[in-house]
Amino acid sequence: MTEKARIIKGVGGLYAAEIMGCGKACGEIINCRAKGSFRRDGIKPLPGDIIEFERQKDGTGFITSICERKNSLIRPASANIDLILFVVAAARPDPDLFLIDKMLAVASHNGIDVLMIVNKTDVDPQRARELCELYSLSGYDTVQFSAEFADDYAEKTQYIRDAVRGKVCFFAGASGVGKSSTINAVFPEFKLSLETGDLSEKIQRGKHTTRKTELFKLCEDSYIADTPGFSMLEIAQYNMIPKDCLTGAFPDLEKHSFSCRYTDCTHVCEDGCGVISAIEDGVVARSRHDSYKLLFEELKNKNEWD
Ligand SMILES: Nc1nc2c(ncn2[C@@H]2O[C@H](COP(=O)(O)OP(=O)(O)O)[C@@H](O)[C@H]2O)c(=O)[nH]1
Ligand SMILES: [Mg+2]
Ligand SMILES: [Zn+2]
Hints:
By secondary structure, this protein is α/β, with parallel strands linked by helices. Helix content is 31%, strand content 23%. A hairpin with a 2-residue loop joins strand 12 (216-219) and strand 13.
């Protein structure tokens, strides 16, 4: 008889999985190994995967199949992500709009919703407001926050808690923006006590940072994962978007591409481009188009070399 479980962590070919369903074992953690043929076929179970397993006499599980994935990322290796909680800082470190747009494009291309948390509002309130305006205009769900002064942001805390309910969520964002601080502040009852600190301390500790992804269960069907040890660049680089899909990864630009004069318009500099005229009309943010153009160049060169 097979049972279903969700993988929450994988280390060296051993997977910790939480049993699903309505049986009495539901919620129990079982250690599983994968079928040998998985490796031969190049299939690797990932955190977030829903698996079928057979219980062995020694109490461990034997993974017999992996249920179809809704999506998956290479780095951090993960599957079936419903929401990326994308933390950016108003300052310290200063936001890098290109990197932010690249991450948003990766999420969009993989069909993953994003909640952008603009953290460190206390450090630069005006920049925080501007960032929120820019990304709300671009169609993203945004919330201003300060992990350091979370008590003053009770409503925002509740908003983030509500947003993760019933979902598998990942925290992502550049190092030092406050991912771990936000998790500690928003979900204090789990006492995850994730390590936080400034960049210089982290570089010194860098060697010991874990690169494994682990899902923490918040409540029924709700999980969150911090992404320690993954740089934003790495996430973007390993989950690169094919050139032909780039416009689709910028929904705010794509909306205006249907009125382009040429069907093969690349929206970089063509005459009669609907995207460019939308920027001139102020309905699409110029910085989003700048990122699009940079990414377009990057992908063009990449494909030429491949
Ligand atoms: N002023 C201020 N500092 C913050 C805030 N959130 C985090 N920090 C500080 O920023 C540093 C990096 O935070 P951390 O959570 O480790 O960032 P992570 O690398 O994204 O996990 C730490 O020194 C935190 O105390 C905030 O809202 N305001
Ligand atoms: Mg952290
Ligand atoms: Zn165009």
